[in-house]
Design a protein that fits this description.
CATH architecture of the largest domain: 3-Layer(aba) Sandwich
Distance between the termini: 19 Å
Structural class: alpha+beta
Largest sheet: 5 strands, mixed
Strand content: 15-25%
CATH topology of the largest domain: D-Maltodextrin-Binding Protein, domain 2
Number of helices: 8
Number of domains: 2
CATH superfamily of the largest domain: Bordetella uptake gene, domain 1
Mean pLDDT: 95
Low-confidence stretches: none
Length: 241
């Protein structure tokens, strides 16, 4: 997409991961942050901290108290170093003195049986992926509570970094004429505001969250800088790919 003709006919719809995280965890990528133009943000893919139903830990404080009492004994799952859930939870843990063992998986459904069996103590994962699968959320990585779990506090409410959810939107190649970008931006706003979009987003437990091109670009730039600092602080080794 970054190398496509900038005429407005080639668009990318996707998450922030290739733009704000991949440059920090991959040794080489064939594009840069400035290779693309963010046209609009469409929705946020929000993460949460999950335990199995019936867990003795009913709150995040319960979980952290258990971790404090058993240093290095608790384990938590995520979808790989540098993924949004991993960075969200690892960033939170950096603000504590807790010692817990992280266990990477290739996908959320791969770790689900181990959470349900108790082999994994907890997981950091997307609400859209694990909602309704026998798990309970202890906290949501967001500034505002999620409609799927209105009684679950955010980590920000509990005094920890909120983290940045998966930011999904529409992108075009650098050099796309401004009037073309503006036209797509306008269409994007109408789509996000439509009943069909909001209904389908609710079904998938995603959060509609429109941002225009300037605001989305600014948010992505801030996330790019923050993720770079966090990856460095966590000493995540660069992938050879």
């Amino acid at each position: 997409m970054a190398r496509a003709k900038p005429d407005g006919y080639t668009l990318l719809i996707g998450p922030n991961t290739p733009i704000t995280i991949a440059p920090h965890v991959l040794k080489s990528i064939p594009y840069s942050f400035d290779s693309i133009v963010p046209v609009c943000q469409t929705f946020e893919n929000v993460m949460a901290i999950f335990v199995k139903q019936g867990s003795p830990w009913r709150t995040l404080k319960d979980l952290f108290d258990a971790a404090q009492a058993q240093p290095g004994k608790l384990t938590w799952g995520h979808t790989g170093p540098g993924a949004v859930p991993h960075l969200s939870m690892a960033g939170l843990l950096r603000t504590t003195t807790l010692s817990v063992q992280d266990v990477p998986f290739r996908g959320e459904l791969q770790m689900l049986p181990l959470i349900l069996s108790g082999e994994l103590s907890f997981a950091a994962a997307s609400i859209s992926g694990l909602y309704g699968r026998g798990l309970e959320p202890l906290a949501v990585f967001a500034e505002k509570r999620h409609s799927a779990y209105p009684d679950t506090p955010t980590v920000a409410e509990l005094g920890y970094p909120a983290g940045v959810p998966g930011l999904n939107g529409v992108f075009v190649p650098q050099g796309t004429p401004a009037p073309v970008v503006a036209a797509i931006e306008k269409a994007c706003k109408a789509a996000v505001d439509s009943e069909g979009f909001t209904t389908f987003a609710a079904r998938l437990r995603q959060t509609p969250a429109y941002l225009d091109s300037a605001s989305f670009t600014r948010r992505l730039r801030e996330d790019f800088e923050a993720k770079g600092a966090l990856v460095k602080a966590l000493d995540i080794k660069q992938d050879g790919n």
